[in-house]
Amino acid sequence: MRPKFFYGYVIIALCFANMVVMRGVNGAFGVYYIALLEEFSWSRSDGATIASVNFFVYAIASPAVGLAFDRYGPRMLMPLGAFLTGLGLVFSSYAHSLAGMYFSYGIVTALGQGALSFVGHNALISFWFVRKRATAIGIASMGQGLGALVMVPSTQLLIDHLGWRWTYIVTGSVLLFFLAPANALLQRRSPQDVGQFPDGDSIPSIQEAAGHLSKEKRGSRDWTLGKAVRSSPFWCITVGHLALGTALFLINTHLIAHFVAVGYEKLAASFYFGLIGFIRIGATVVWGTLSDRIGRNKTYGIATFVTALGVGCMVAMTAGGPLWLVYLTIALYGIGHSAGNPTYGAVISDIFSGHKIGLIFGFLEVSFGLGSAFGSWIGGYLFDVTGSYAWAFTLCLLCFVISGLAIHACVRWHAKNELKMDNG
């Protein structure tokens, strides 16, 4: 019999809440970015280096985050992440220079985001859900869409009424007084910690599933970091993550500024950005479910094509352009890019299962963080040089294609490897 209540749903709810706030904090930087440029008169590339430092620190901290997840579990790691993120945001309210923002948002906040972001959540979900792993990751990732929808326009409203410094304090307080305690009280590493099994299955079904695998095959699936680094999927995902991080956070950092540059009011620009999050709420779980049903490769190929159409609309958007082009951009990009997190999370979990999955996730996240740092900076630099974001968004097109090819290569490798193991 299935247990009356599967605790995995609590884990999904916590992951969802964490992603609401984390995505909201990331997305809201585009709003703070404009406010900071107005107050300090920095160039766009200089202002964007704040986000670049943040992502660089996030990248180099990711292996340590993965190791901490494997050793100490989410009940210690995730409350610490919420605390550091909130503390960094509060510190940011006192910054008066680039150096001050580098320390508060670039270092302290980034360390917290690393502990409360992709690495830990996807490693955690992989323990609680197996058959519907991509669906579960998709449901949790819906929080990212809600975070963009709610927190980005709210941040602009708060800045308009309170100023950017007090807005940092308000946001930081949410993490310090709500998110950190919730994770400390409710997080659990695996179903076995509460006497349950993945997907809420009963003991017989778990034993039956285990019986189909010989001891040798189960052992070969228990990946270590050394084995992972020597495999081609590790490097395919590394390249794909680098490209995906570049594209996503070039757009996340600069899309609001792009809307403003082509003539829209700041609050309207924040609202448009939030609509992308609204679309992502539903699209993420749809992509995750579709991935479980028709396969990771086919699903992500469709998503990449839709994303490319959306980015093409961004390139075509100019001052005085029609409003329908804005909404078409929002719809296509909002739907397409939502497949990234559930697809990459599921593919990594599918391939690199075992007791070191957190550490492997952490090392794979390094390239995503480095790509995010580069994307944030290069978007500002290309605008300073050319006076528009057209070339920056063209670079995004190339990056999304590379990301799609990386998933294609990984899925083909995994299929061939599974076939060899079944025949062996």
Model description:
The chain is mainly alpha-helical and about 425 residues long. The protein has one domain (about 10-190, about 215-424): MFS general substrate transporter like domains (Growth Hormone, Chain: A, Up-down Bundle). It contains 17 helices and no strands. The protein has helices at about 10-40, 45-70, 75-90, 100-115, 120-130, 135-160, 165-185, 205-210, 215-220, 225-230, 230-260, 265-295, 295-315, 325-335, 340-350, 355-385, 390-424. Helix 2 (about 45-70) packs parallel to helix 4 (about 100-115) and helix 11 (about 230-260) packs antiparallel against helix 15 (about 340-350). The longest helix has about 35 residues, at about 390-424. The chain is globular.
Protein traits:
mainly alpha; 424 residues; 17 helices; Growth Hormone, Chain: A; 83% helix
Question: Secondary-structure map with pairings?
Answer:
Blueprint: H1 8-40, H2 44-72, H3 74-92, H4 98-115, H5 118-128, H6 133-162, H7 164-186, H8 203-211, H9 215-220, H10 225-229, H11 232-261, H12 266-294, H13 296-316, H14 323-336, H15 340-351, H16 357-386, H17 390-423
Helix pairs in contact: 1-2, 1-5, 1-6, 1-7, 1-11, 2-3, 2-4, 2-16, 3-4, 3-7, 5-15, 5-16, 6-7, 6-12, 6-15, 11-12, 11-15, 11-16, 11-17, 12-13, 12-14, 13-14, 13-15, 13-17, 15-17, 16-17
